[in-house]
Amino acid sequence: MEKVVSGIRPTGNLHLGNYFGAVKSFVKMQDEYESLFFIADWHSLTTSPKPEDIQRSARVILAEYLACGIDPQKAKIYVQSDVKETLELYLFFNMNMYLGELERVTTFKDKARQQPDNVNAGLLTYPTLMAADILQHRAHKVPVGKDQEQNMEMARKCARRFNHIYGVDLFPEPQNFYFNTQAVKVPGLDGSGKMGKSDGNCIYLYEEDAAIRKKVMKAVTDSGPEAPNSVKPDVIENLFTFLRICSDEETYNYFDEKWNDCSIRYGDLKKQIAEDIIKTVTPIRERIMEYRSNTQLLDRIAQEGAEVARASASATLKEVRKIIGFR
């Protein structure tokens, strides 16, 4: 059976972008593949989280994974820092990567602009740590969002380069996996292209109905269509993306027709979006609360997942050491 690996950084709660961009893929894949999903607490160090937040955030994300439908009987969930073998493979991959190619990675350049006083080495080598997360399990597929496609290409480069340097066929080149035919990019409510925690434009899976309605009603719009059948500007296309992922086809077509004949009322559109988001989020939110109250269960699931992940990573590292020349 093919292996699937992916993870999410515990820098806060899961939001709709995480859910539609990755977690729905996780749920779909656990029935079809040997799946390992991890909570990337080492990755979170690139943004300097407070020490007291790290363990709390890991438990929060684990509870939310479970609430979204990941079944620990089908897929193993573990915390990245519980698998120390990852760091050794990360070191080996860093020895084969070049400064120039790491500096050209878009996510590095974006983060360097966002946090100019904290452009750390971990930020630069984020792609090689991600490659180690994936390749230690010799994964074949990785559920990813649109923003991770370049990092996935770097992971494939790590696999190809190692195989080429040592004349082996150890690592498969992991392929991107999307819940739909292409990556789902959930927009921000502020009119930006992507929902993200750092931009403050998220709807979180734990949020109450009133908070969701308030956020959606503040979403950025324009003055309305000026001619029939005109192209939707980005801020309006963003709203229609929410309809596409949370509403039924009939609802989408209704508002699309209203746009095309210039009779659309943004207030009505936002109210519909809010109610459909609430319909999506409410059962997940209720399950989150149940899981978060059971820390013993969360810790047991994480421990069981770590045991499986360590065994998988250790088997790979044993071969890697032998190939490179270490006893």
As for the CATH topology of the largest domain, it is: Rossmann fold
CATH class label of the largest domain? Alpha Beta
Q: Judging from the principal axes of the Cα atoms, what is the shape?
A: globular
Terminal residue distance: 30 Å
Sheet with the most strands: spatial strand order: 1-2-3
The overall pLDDT, averaged over residues, is 90
Structural classification: mainly alpha
- The CATH superfamily of the largest domain is HUPs
Number of helices: 13
Cα-atom radius of gyration = 21 Å
Strand content: 5-15%
Based on DSSP secondary structure assignment, what is the total number of beta strands? 5
Low-confidence runs (pLDDT<50, min 5 residues)? Answer: none
Summed up, the domain count is 2
Give the second-level CATH assignment, the architecture of the largest domain. 3-Layer(aba) Sandwich
Order of helices and strands: EHEHEHHHHHEHEHHHHH
Describe the largest sheet.
3 strands, parallel
Give an overview of the whole structure:
It is a single chain. With 327 residues, the protein is mainly alpha-helical. It folds into two domains: 213 residues, Rossmann fold, CATH 3.40.50.620; 83 residues, Orthogonal Bundle (Tyrosyl-Transfer RNA Synthetase), CATH 1.10.240. 55% of the residues lie in helices and 7% in strands. It has 13 helices and five strands. The strands form two sheets. Strands 1-2-3 form a three-stranded parallel sheet. The chain has a two-stranded parallel sheet with strand order 4-5. Helix 7 packs across helix 8. It is globular and about 70 Å long. The mean pLDDT is 90.
